[in-house]
Amino acid sequence: MAERTDFTKSQTSLAEYSPVNKSKRTDRSGKKAGDQNTMQLKKEISLINGISLIVGNMIGSGIFVSPKGVLIYSKSYGLSLIIWAIGGIFSVFGALCYAELGTTITKSGASYAYILESFGSFIAFIRLWTSLLIVEPTSQAIIAITFANYLVQPFFPTCDPPYMACRLLAAACECLLTVINCAYVKWGTRVQDVFTYAKVAALIAIIIAGLVEIFQGHTWYFKNSFAGSSSDIGEISLALYSALFSYSGWDTLNYVTEEIKNPERNLPLAIAVSMPIVTIIYIMTNIAYYTVLDAQAVLSSDAVAVTFADRVFGIFSWTIPIAVAFSCFGGLNASILASSRLFFVGSREGHLPDLLSMIHIKRFTPVPALLFNCFMTLIYLCVEDVFQLINYFSFSYWFFVGLSIAGQLYLRWKEPDRPRPLKLSLAFPIIFCLCTVFLVVVPLYSDFLNSVIGIAIALSGIPFFFLGVYLPASRRPQFINKFIGAVTRYMQLLCYCVLTEMDPDEEKKVEIKSN
């Protein structure tokens, strides 16, 4: 594995393995930064691609299927719309903070990279461990299953679709998107663009239908829209929590920072364009639902958009289940793109086996990381109660997001002269951090058992950190080194890939910052 380019002629035994030091990952070939022959991920994500990634990952199946999570706790249309707006504003604060972090720490990996830079290796590894073990594969498995359910629903109008058929279709979807992203980065971004346009078009159709109903005078559900509103802080908190879950995904582009063209400009600009789009679409879509459906119909529906379409679109109501499937397909593609880069960066930092930081020598895609991500998701597709697993990581998700933005405040104090192409007022990270404290406490109060299980899952990474990161390779059990060495070399030959090289200019920046 230390033989980076001539790996087919390596005379090192398959049984020998030693992790590559960071010093060995540098470009010794004398190539200039940006040379197309340099073995590193290429900057192929444009501004439009970035907007599609953020919008496509934020708008998943939730706004089509279950916007009732906010209504069930707020108990009125008026208060629920206010909570949707507050959730959008809060997400804008977080996204702007990530825009500063992404232009200051120009590494892929989002919160993992920012926590690593601010608080060191151990906490960053725990963040990576929770994503690897449950967050990413569980999320992708659920999106793939939802895609399969809605794709086959028109063929089973009077009953639930077969369990095995849905799981196999979900697995086929995951594998297809993995192959597309392994082929070329451009293929993945084009798929993302197309399906983002499709889901936005479907939501615009719902919004227009709702506006037509309003202009025709169908506004009786908005009379006394605040009547019966909940005044309980706990219920309002849970309503806000549900809204924020629907807004999650605004950090997608930060996972691929190193692949963005002109990231100092395009990263914050993509965030600035995407966030208002999603917030307005969410609020207007809920207004459309509330115009046609009463509160009882919204709360009793398993798929609010489908119920809405049945009443408004008539014979064309079948288009909404297909639109939900398209939305899931695009969201899954964005999730695969982002999570594979997380594993790629984790490997490059020495927290995962070196195999995962290799890229195809001609296509410049992280094939091993993509295959590993697919393998983990397929495992979770075999779990019948996979939807229950998503309850375990709400606490961890907001804890690490808040910690990464706390790192922003820490770096402002520790390195005040560090170059920051985008520098926000301190009010943004301070307000966001205070709100994330609230979001971490809410699950502990409302869902204590699942939160404790989530904490236990995160802490289960401690022995793996000690064995795989803290201990030098020479002190680890030799059978581990031999096994990893054999898998690494066979996969390297199979995937036709080598270790990446750091951009010399970026490496100099890292050295200057560390000094």
Give structural notes.
The protein is an all-alpha fold and 515 residues long. It has 21 helices and 2 strands. It has a two-stranded antiparallel sheet. Helix 4 packs antiparallel against helix 10 and helix 7 packs across helix 8. The N terminus and C terminus are likely disordered.
Entry keywords:
515 residues, mainly alpha, two-stranded antiparallel ribbon, 2 strands, 1% strand, globular, disordered N terminus, disordered C terminus
User: Judging from the principal axes of the Cα atoms, what is the shape?
Assistant: globular
Biggest sheet: strand arrangement: 1-2
Q: Care to count the β-strands?
A: 2
Low-confidence stretches: 1-18, 21-35, 507-515
Contiguous helical run count: 21
Order of secondary-structure elements = HHHHHHHHHHHHHEHHHHHHHEH
Strand content: under 5%
Radius of gyration: 23 Å
Q: Percent of residues in helical segments?
A: 55-70%
Major sheet, described briefly? Answer: 2 strands, antiparallel
Intertermini distance: 30 Å
The class by helix and strand makeup works out as mainly alpha
Mean pLDDT: 84
Question: What layout of secondary structure does this protein have?
Answer:
Elements: H1 47-58, H2 62-65, H3 68-74, H4 77-104, H5 111-119, H6 121-152, H7 163-183, H8 185-215, H9 233-247, H10 263-292, H11 295-300, H12 304-312, H13 319-348, E1 358-360, H14 367-381, H15 386-389, H16 394-414, H17 427-446, H18 448-459, H19 462-470, H20 478-495, E2 497-499, H21 504-514
Antiparallel strand pairs: 1-2
Helix pairs in contact: 1-8, 1-10, 1-13, 3-4, 3-9, 4-9, 4-10, 4-17, 5-6, 5-16, 6-7, 6-13, 6-14, 7-8, 7-13, 7-14, 8-10, 8-13, 13-14, 16-17, 17-18
